[in-house]
Amino acid sequence: MNIRNSLKIFFLVLPMLVGSATHAQDSLYHNSFPLKDVRLLGGAFKRARDLNIRVLLAYDADRLLAPFRKEAGLPARASGYPNWEGLDGHVGGHYLSALAMHYAATQNTECKRRMDYMIAELKACQQENARRYPAWGNGYLGGVPNSDTIWSAFRQGNFKAYRAAWVPWYNLHKLYAGLRDVWLYTGNQEAKALFLSFCDWGIDIVAGLTEAQMQSMLDTEHGGMNEVMADAFQMTGKEKYLVAAKRFSHRMLLDPMAKGIDNLDNKHANTQVPKAVGFQRISELCQDSTFKKAGSFFWETVTNNRSVAFGGNSRREFFPAKAACMDMVTDVEGPESCNSNNMLKLTEDLFRVVPSATYMDYYERTLYNHILSTQHPTHGGYVYFTPLRPRHYRVYSAPNQAMWCCVGTGMENHGQYNRLIYTHRQDSLFVNLFAASELDWQEKKIVIRQETNFPEEEHTKLLITSGLSRFTLMVRYPGWMKQGSLKILVNGKNVKYDQHPASYVAIDRTWKKGDIVQVFLPMQNSIEHLPNVPAYIAIMHGPILLGAKTGTENLNGLIANDGRWAHIAGGEKLPVDKAPILVSDTFDQVIHKLQPVKGRPLHFTFPDLKTINPVKIELEPFYGIHDARYMIYWMALSNGQYKGYLDSLAVFEKERMVLEKRTIDFIAPGEQQPEIDHKLLQEGSRSDNTMDAFWREASNGGYFSYQMSTKNEEELILRVRYWGSEWGNRNFEILIDDQRLVIENNTNRWNQSAFFDIEYPIPAGMVKDKEYVRVKFQSLPGTTAGRIYYIRLLKR
């Protein structure tokens, strides 16, 4: 970097460094108000935030700290949490962030006490790591299992232990973010020192790696490591952190996104989103056009092409290709709440640079319909997957049991509702969200109170309760409104404007105590089609997704236990073709005539609509549907479509349901989470995807194997999916617990471009008295085992 650019960056960062002594939050996010200066006054957001504090305080801080003490060689104060072993420590980082946010927003003293206690404990761990592991541990502060084995070899460029572990950098990133957030929201200088020392360790541990080795390392999920290094640069002005942020940026995603190329098909979704957050943070700090384009294009393509009606994305944790989007309806592992948490971070970062109402439209939609919906309104449990499958349901975590990633982000989600209600830019105040709240704008010495029951009512009122100041009030004109339908009154007088929906209306004047701004926000009904599956529609009322309860039967595992897969709603899948199906040639007209239910805001019925498999349907906000099966996407067919479509769907669905009922366990080889769940072992194997399906193969004596559940059944069949047009020598063995089941030879077997499912009966003696078996695909010298696309254990 030349001297001119260095000076440019220094003067960009300098004002933020000067402000850090007073408001750490403003030193990173210069358009934000300190959380303590924005009070929630009521409504769904405040209820969710207050409930979440009670949930946070039900966790045991010593158990969350246990992995850090263990890796530092310090005596245990409590046993660590089970479930998701291998990611030990990641929730502890999220917990720190959550404590900091909730303390800053509410001044809850117990949140602060726990936060301070954890910082003191982590300081002791960092000091002990430096003493115990002088060759690699100076500054280290992680709970990654087998840290010594992993990082001592990693430092030398040996990635074997690193690759055998479960996403180590992803794990560490959560504590990086937790330490940063403690400083950011509370000004805790000890947390800042721990954070920067940890960043220095991160720079040092990769110092000897070549660029090729760095990029190879980044093929493994690593969270937002580029983001936290960029934060360290902004906190200190030290260029080494900006260099590190760029080194931790994955070119596999950065380069195509910077060129406007969407290469997300079949990629693990939440692996990619934090990378894009880091791209945007880097571009914000050094004005690099490559990073700027990559961050903004990623947001555009995900929100416009890959997001569902409630703002979430992915199925089975991956971005599906167009041809595979029907999986959104048939699968139960719908959009993951972590993805939306990180997409909101990216949205916030983009908005800070370019305060566009389009960003806030997405932010509002996702906040209400996904984030708010993932908290149980009574016990406060968190949701991992939100199925789109008609008539399925969600399951919730319980404190001190599930340690899912979405428990970690869930802890944070409900402490951030007041963060973007208001922002500022020079002398402009942006009213971004319509929520009952009060802003103490200390710089202007003015207090603004927002009174509303939005979205239950279609208006809000802003009152200047204290102060006198001139500024421009920027009132959001939501994109979900009709042209010209927004009405704003200032002290009873109409405000004229010429803006369009998805913009801001500027009101520049001297504001004084007693001024009142009334904003009328009439909502309309609209239809959104499922991406790439136009036969399925969702129904919106303004920004609110409407759903319908469809029953409470067979809600297995509604409150999850410590089971490894308990985050998946594993109850009976009801046939898709038997769900209510809407039939009309004029859906737009029908939707605009939804009948409000008297005395129940945001509840509607269909007036005159033909329905197949009819049931009594009452639409209501999806964020209020819990402990029930539901529908949020509806098959919607014209009168000319439905008969033939239903006939073919019924045959397909019958075959699928029969297979589901026979299935004991299944795995999609090549997909990250299923392979972790089934304890993948491999040597000389590789994975990728073809025809929108993942696969794994092993060559020249290599192998791969999975642990699969038998559920103590003995009459079993192994069903394996192959592609019928593979090249080369495909001669290999399939073994059960190292006993040969069969020698298979698929060389030139089919020569057809189609999938083939082959079933292998398993002798009862191979599975007798076994709860689990290891299924292994072993290649022979000079041959390839696979490609294997799908594996099932079936009842005979």
From TrEMBL:
Residues 429-523 form the Non-reducing end beta-L-arabinofuranosidase-like GH127 middle domain. Residues 1-24 form the signal peptide. This is Uncharacterized protein. Residues 37-418 form the Non-reducing end beta-L-arabinofuranosidase-like GH127 catalytic domain. It comes from Pseudobacter ginsenosidimutans. GO terms for biological process: carbohydrate metabolic process. Keywords: Signal. Residues 551-634 form the DUF4986 domain. InterPro entries: 6-hairpin_glycosidase_sf, Beta-AFase-like_GH127_cat, Beta-AFase-like_GH127_middle, DUF4986, GH146_SB_dom. Residues 659-794 form the Glycoside hydrolase GH146 substrate-binding domain. The lineage of its organism: Bacteria, Pseudomonadati, Bacteroidota, Chitinophagia, Chitinophagales.
